[in-house]
Amino acid sequence: MPAKLFRRATAAIAALPLLTLAACSYGSEAKKDDTAKIAAGAQKIDGLDSVKIGYFGNLTHATALVANQKGFFQKELGASKATYQTFNAGPSEIEALNSGSIDIGWIGPSPAINSYTKSDGKSLRIIGGSASGGVKLVVNPKKITSLQDVKGKKIATPQLGNTQDVAFLNWIASQGWKVDAQSGKGDVSVVRTDNKVTPDAFKSGSIDGAWVPEPTASKLVAEGGKVLLDEASLWPDKKFVITNIIVRQAFLKEHPKAVEAVLKASVEANKWINANPDQAKAAANQQLAADAGKALPAKVLDPAWKSIQFTNDPLASTLNTEAQHAVKAGLLDSPKLAGIYDLTLLNKVLKAEGEPAVADAGLGVK
User: Fold this and answer.
1) Using H for helix, E for strand and C for coil, what is the string for the chain?
2) What is d(CA 113, CA 242) in angstroms, rounded to the nearest whole number?
3) Which of 146, 186, 282, 311 is the most exposed place for a label (fewest CB within 10 A)?
């Protein structure tokens, strides 16, 4: 279960609209897209009129962006209309999932862990992977020239207790420095800042750097920042989960065929992305423009895209490690994550595609 500190942090964040961005957040919150085209003669999946899909208008959610843009979701769902909502924040997407406003969502690991533990394992299941990487420590090279120079500086993260915040707090601890996780005060000043305003804060000099996901990291580089550390370098095989696929447990139980259809579309999208990276980048940016109202310029899009790996593997062992980092930071009690994964349908899809099965690191349903 989450610690009291973590609950207080969540409540404090909810009270501050400018600090409500979660891991990988960037885009227009809860913007609906009902433009899906249904093929003539198609049949409904599980008798459903629609399947409601949520994701962030963000490059680390490009699997969903591309599957929407290229029509992969709608093709697999037949006459059950694929509808979409985009979010700026993990908490708002979790709220939408729990209320039934969406059925399936793309989201970062920390919100999924938090929801699962707060509900005593009853809210959601992680049913697939989507992306790895795409997180960097970008600094002002006039103020910071080495990792040791980070001490005493003001470094932004997207949100108290979010995936990047936890990663940065863990890295700080690994340097032997101390920071109060709640206040962000200590040997480094951790400034929780909305990803949308972080580039302006960086440009004005009110922060010295940021530990942030793409495309915010590349936006900072475009403003004169320098990548001091790529988080991927801290992980075995340079892989760690940044985006998962989650589903409401009741929806998974009642409509497994619909869930399987969405997973099939996701696998198809990842296959197409990896086979056609330039076309996929363009498709993701086109959908990002539709969702967020503005496409990314090439100087931001190109480097951001290169740092993200798209994978069906949920990289379950890294999620467990990220949870332990939150525990060490004092933001989470030792969580009970057994059962958070159900990869049955994903592995069924992968087998049909001739792809190897993926593992749940012992955290799957029994």
Assistant:
1) CCCHHHHHHHHHHHCCHHHCCCCCCCCCCCEEECCCCCCCCCCECCCCCEEEEEEECCHHHHHHHHHHHCCHHHHHHECCEEEEEEECCHHHHHHHHHHCCCCEEEECHHHHHHHHHHCCCCCEEEEEEEEEECEEEEECCCCCCCHHHHCCCEEEECCCCCHHHHHHHHHHHHCCCCECCCCCCECCEEEECCCCCHHHHHHHCCCCEEEEECCHHHHHHHCCCEEEEEHHHHCHHHCCEEEEEEEEHHHHHHCHHHHHHHHHHHHHHHHHHHHCHHHHHHHHHHHHHHHHCCCCCHHHHHHHHHCEEECCCCCHHHHHHHHHHHHHCCCCCCCCCCCCECCHHHHHHHHHCCCCCCCCCCCECC
2) 13
3) 146
| Cβ atoms of 292 and 28 closer than 8 Å | yes
Tokens at residue 191, please? 């400034």
In the numeric block, which tokens belong to residue 346? 């994903």
Query: At what angle are helices 62-69 and 277-292 packed, to 10 degrees?
Result: 90
- Nearest CA among 49, 29, 55, 43 for reference residue 269: 55
Mean pLDDT rounded to a whole number for the chain: 90
Q: How many CB atoms lie within 10 A of CB 278?
A: 9
Please give the structure tokens belonging to residue 66.
């591309």
Q: What is the pLDDT of residues 30-68, one digit of tens each?
A: 444 444 577 777 899 999 999 999 999 889 999 999 999
- 304 vs 300: CA distance, rounded Å: 6
Residue range 244-255, pLDDT digits in tens: 999 999 999 999
Q: Can you tell me which residue has the tokens 């972080």?
A: 198
> CA 23 → CA 11, 165, 207, 219, distances in Å?
17, 9, 19, 16
Residues 6 or more apart in contact with residue 1 via CB below 8 angstroms: 117, 118, 120, 333, 335, 336
Tokens of 213: 């996901």
